[in-house]
Amino acid sequence: MLSDFIDTANRGGTTGVGMPAVGAGMGEMGFVPRIDVHETDKDIEVRCDLPGIPKDNVKVEANQGVLTISGESQTEGERREGTMHVRERYQGKFSRSVALPPAADLTNTKAAFHDGVLTVHVPKKAEAAGRRITIS
């Protein structure tokens, strides 16, 4: 389910659960940061590249099974005399959302920001691994 959501979001469509893929298109957003999502039996790790963006300009929220990373890149004091020939560095607002499985433990989610990479660890609830149900 997680990989289907991300594949669809990267193509600019809707998620597998019928929500629009936030951050999939430019629209009013300044850019769409790249993410990696890795899932194991114990947790989900989301890594987001945010080079040059101070961590104070980044917000991470987990709500109703959706992890959202948003913020703004500002290029203060970069006005220069002359003509700009190439501008490839991104700026403006950004947002990316990832649908999480029901097993995600949002209360114990942790985030760290180092060298322009935001890493969010979402543990899974132990009981969500499944159990055998006895038929009576």
Defining key terms:
Immunoglobulin-like, mainly beta, 1 helix, 136 residues
* pLDDT averaged residue by residue: 78
Number-wise, the strands total: 7
Low-confidence spans:
7-27
Broad CATH class of the domain at 30-75 and 91-126: Mainly Beta
The major sheet is characterized as: 4 strands, antiparallel
Give Rg in angstroms. 18 Å
| Total of helices | 1
Query: Helical residue percent?
Result: under 10%
Return the CATH architecture of the domain at 30-75 and 91-126: Sandwich
How big a fraction of the residues is strand?
25-35%
CATH fold-level topology of the domain at 30-75 and 91-126: Immunoglobulin-like
Walk me through the structure:
The protein has 136 residues and is mainly beta. The protein has a domain at 30-75 and 91-126: Immunoglobulin-like (Sandwich). The protein contains 1 helix and 7 strands. The protein has one helix at residues 2-10, and strands at residues 35-39, 43-49, 58-63, 66-73, 92-99, 110-114, 117-123. The strands form 2 sheets. A 4-stranded antiparallel beta sheet has the order 1-2-7-6, covered by helices on one side. Strands 3-4-5 form a 3-stranded antiparallel beta sheet. β1 and β2 form a beta hairpin. Mean pLDDT is 78; it is low at 7-27.
